[in-house]
Write a structure and sequence with these properties.
Length: 281
């Protein structure tokens, strides 16, 4: 049996594992992600979040995607693990700092909502309005790193279906000539007008599918829109799973300091049986 906590941030759902005693190694956690995150066949989730000890912060967050790969950072996941850490006593204060592979994250838990201060985003080499195509789909994009690599496409018109977003997102994500490490793909449109917010659909690397929400994708989309002069520094980002609010402050040396606010819902405590961990197909 393995104890997991099911949480979601705007529909981006995770299984959280307490590994503060380091009983599970990387290979084991990668296997758990591939086995437990299978929908319909097992517990189902977009990924696994793991709380581990840190020598410099309150704790360390690790992220294992549904395909077993370890990701650097996840904004919605960071909100979930911050609330989890406070509720479980891993962090003794609602204001905390934790490690990720994408940099340290400051968080403040406010009931079922969490505000994150993400690591600075370097915009000195921000790529804006580059052109490319996949098949018959021509697009202009921005590329930047918000803990993980993100491609932001400002749509002239929306695609006709989720399947089409999935197809195009997967094709762009696989363009290793453009993105050697792969990329998350964010399709962005205005919500009536840009001053009313952004609507964002994200195809996530590692999940290899559309997700209901992506916190770093919301942040990347807000950064790209702000630097393109389309929005102000406070941007409401509407994902299919809900609202993320992104606030941007100018930092030193051509950086932006993003804050990300959104929900972190505590769903259930689950004991996964050995059958849930059986060899996946």
């Amino acid at each position: 049996m393995i104890l997991c906590t099911k949480m979601n941030g705007n529909g981006n759902d995770f299984l959280i594992i307490d590994n503060m005693d380091l009983r599970y190694d990387k290979e084991t956690l990668s296997g758990y992600a591939q086995a437990l995150c299978r929908r319909r066949e097992s517990l189902g989730a977009d990924g696994i979040l793991v709380a581990e000890p840190s020598e410099v912060c309150d704790f360390k967050m690790r992220l294992f995607n549904r395909d077993g790969s370890e990701g650097e950072m996840c904004g919605n996941g960071a909100r979930c693990i911050a609330r989890y850490a406070f509720l479980k006593g891993i962090a003794n204060d609602p204001a905390m700092v934790f490690e990720t592979l994408g940099g340290s994250v400051e968080a403040v838990v406010k009931g079922s909502r969490v505000v994150l201060k993400l690591a600075p985003v370097d915009v000195s080499g921000l790529l804006l309005n580059a052109g490319a195509s996949v098949g018959d789909y021509d697009f202009s994009y921005a590329f930047l790193t918000v803990g993980v690599p993100h491609t932001v496409i400002f749509e002239k018109e929306k695609l006709e279906s989720e399947d089409r977003y999935r197809e195009i997102g997967r094709s762009i994500r696989m363009r290793t000539d453009l993105f050697p490490e792969g990329s998350n793909i964010n399709f962005v449109s205005q919500r009536g007008s840009f001053d009313k917010g952004l609507e964002v659909i994200t195809y996530e690397r590692g999940v290899e599918d559309l997700t209901l929400s992506c916190g770093t994708g919301s942040t990347a989309s807000a950064v790209a829109a702000f630097k393109a002069g389309l929005t102000g520094p406070v941007v409401d980002v509407y994902n299919p799973g809900g609202l993320n609010r992104v606030s941007l402050l100018e930092g030193p040396s051509e950086t932006l300091l993003p804050e990300l606010e959104g929900g972190a819902s505590y769903i259930a405590e689950i004991e996964a049986s050995e059958e849930a961990l059986e060899k996946y197909n």
